[in-house]
């Protein structure tokens, strides 16, 4: 089921804010909103030699743990599968070191978690 328009707009704004935050820290955007049938990549960025796959999660309410807590093992697996597929489409980057970051967004702001999970966690 597609997201409601206002929910999609909030998510888009959170992704844009996250991108600006990360670019301000020196990362360079390679791709955004990359969809595969088994998963999605919100942002794909480069930091030096690293390819950084960024999951952006907006939560209006922190009662249930906020954006970081909302990224469970199942979501991590889907992001990892999408990252593998993206790298297969970009063989020139396939041997670069990779990491998975999460930007938790809320009305209070953005919280960037570098290397929030690894393939070993899955």
UniProtKB/TrEMBL annotation:
InterPro entries assigned to the protein according to its UniProt record, in alphabetical order: Restrct_endonuc-II-like, tRNA_endonuc-like_dom_sf, UPF0102_YraN-like
Task: Write out the GO MF terms.
Answer: nucleic acid binding
NCBIfam families per record: PRK12497.1-3, YraN family protein
Family, as annotated: Belongs to the UPF0102 family.
**What name has this protein been given in UniProt?**
UPF0102 protein C6N40_02420
Species of provenance: Arenimonas caeni
